[in-house]
Amino acid sequence: QVQLVESGGGLVQPGGSLRLSCAASGSIFGIGGMGWYRQAPGKQRELVATITRGGSTNYADSVRGRFAISRDNAKNTVYLQMNSLKPEDTAVYLCNARVSITEIANIDSWGQGTQVTVSS
Question: How far apart (Å, rounded) are the C-alpha atoms in residues 120 and 35?
Fold first, then answer.
């Protein structure tokens, strides 16, 4: 019914940049907050950045100043621009969205993730 699909991951050298995209599709009445999470092997999942429908943002201390989250409400899409990448940024990046499927019914949706690897 509702699907989130991430794209844009890959292999990049330290100091490089990547831009991740996440597009929502299906039976969508509206989308509230959206965010990016990441999980590395042997580590717990952590929140990277969030953005409200109105554009208010929040970042983890480890990425503030290097990453930027944005969204295009007309396209049901959220982006994560990642600059000055470090090896410790290596992880699977997951997209999350609070989706309204009717005026009163909301669901929490997750993408399958996209791999980001930062290495020399």
Answer: 28
d(CA 15, CA 66): 10
2 closest CA partner among 77, 92, 100, 113: 100
Phi and psi, residue 59, nearest 5°? -130, 150
pLDDT at position 1 is 84
pLDDT in tens, 33-65: 999 999 999 999 999 999 999 999 999 999 999
The pLDDT tens digits of the residues spanning 73-86 come to: 999 999 999 999 99
DSSP states of 58-101 = EE-TTTBTTEEEEEEGGGTEEEEEE-S--GGG-EEEEEEEEEES
Place of tokens 């997750």: 110
Q: What residue ranges in 8-76 does DSSP mark as E strands? A: 10-12, 18-26, 30-39, 46-51, 57-59, 67-72
